[in-house]
Predict the 3D structure of the following.
Amino acid sequence: MDTPEPEQRIGKRPRGSLARILFSAVAAFAVLLLAAFFFIRSESYQAGGREQGEVRFMFEKGTDAFTLASDLRAAGIIRSEYAFLYRLWDEESWKTLQAGEYLLSGTMTIPEIIGKLSRGETIQKGIKVTFPEGWTAAEMAARLSERGLPGSEFLELVNDPLPEWRTRFPFLANLPEEASLEGVLFPDTYFFSPIFGAEAIVVKMLENFQVQTAEIPTFAEKTGAQWLDALTLSSILEAEVKSEEDRRMIADLFLRRLEAGMPLQSDATVRYALGVTKIQHSLDDIAIDSPYNTYKYKGLPPGPVSNPGAVSIRAVTNPTPNPYWYFLSNPETGETVFSVTFEEHVANKARHGL
């Protein structure tokens, strides 16, 4: 009797062998991932871009991280998008990046590139000119001239604005026909091209005023005499005291004086009338016959006496109620001292050596 031969298993491997193969594959893949991670991490310290010189790179507002990385690679500034994205993620700096035009290079490290984008070190287009809050148009013109820009022509246009600006900037309709642009030249830091003419400089400042004051609804909604009065009072506050709290207090004080028919007696208006800055005015100074002298004439002056910033404009539209009728500013400490009665005011002046 023949003994049957055992069945032959054709094309099959033991289950243990299959498990070992799968384990080996997973382990190899993990090793590759780990190697890739460390490679990208190492790469994230060097940009390695092909461009060895400086490249003008525009980082548009609204660009996402992946597009930014792709644009940097296309511009030859970085070699690996993944390395850039890893460093961005590792430093948690995506939200700190600032849009603008930059000078970058493939010789920079990725941390240097990210640092420059985070600090907003954009290409400064033009000549930097800063106009402090409370400066007059004449002071602005002098600074423009110091920077090699057309200060004299600027002041001429401020004093005799172009008629078409009234159409272009609706808020100018609130100014009398013969009024200058004193008060609506928004104080800020600007970058003016060396080829900028006086007209372009004025327009840029008017555009800034329009944008900044649109964010103050209670002021933007005023028209005509109300708007001009608010702007004029803001310009006086700007030149009188520094802190927002003091400005809001004095705004209420001045508004009550106007309502009661009392003179404002503001040194800021006398300073504007004299055209000279003084810490303290003499009796002769406050006797000057000028419609801007609020010691001599009741009510507001004909127009602004400086170019106020947003803080002073907000102070007028949102004053802080208080019982005071008088105040003084200590020129040495900057402290504002308030008084309810005139007798208290005189005593405070003596106490502070004024």
User: Anything to note?
Assistant: The two ends are 136 Å apart (CA to CA). The longest strand covers residues 55-59. Confidence is low (pLDDT under 50) at residues 6-10. The beta strands are 55-59, 100-104, 127-130, 189-192, 326-329, 336-339.
